[in-house]
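Section 5.1 Outputs to date
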Amino acid sequence: MGETTVPTAAKARPTYDVVLRPRSSLVRSTALSIVFSVVPLAVALVWVSFPLRLWPVFAAVVVVLAVLVGVVFVRLRSAFVGIGPDTVTARGLVLAVRSFPRTEVAGIVLGTTFGSSVDRTTRELVALDADGAKLFRMRADVWGDPALDQVVEALGVQVTEHPRPMPARDFARRVFGARSDRS
């Protein structure tokens, strides 16, 4: 039996010169928002459904939503951008882990964007390859302004900065041109 088993090879974990994580205040405020607003609402819904004898349905919905929120919270805590001597690795909230050679990053676009209100702006960083395809994107409201500056410094590639704030949709059009529907 010893000849039929395959020895396990330990995967070499990459080492990074720079490791960035989402702002801890964002993680903390997300957890507190869930605890102090969603949990009481879920308990109230189940409580009100007792007389209607629908409480198992409401309880099941609450459990499914709690599991989904837990998954999102774990993903938020495990998100990172790692920049090593040869590799860049990005793990976001939604997308899987993406690793690519550091030499693939040809340029960085920095811009300040706003949504529905001009008063609330945020910086964005988009790393592009030589063909103009997006490698990864970071927003300062999630990662913080110092993290964006660290990425620019660590990668040391050409930086294109849009000095004036613009709507997020316009920023995407300028960065990606007609191909703004890419992830």
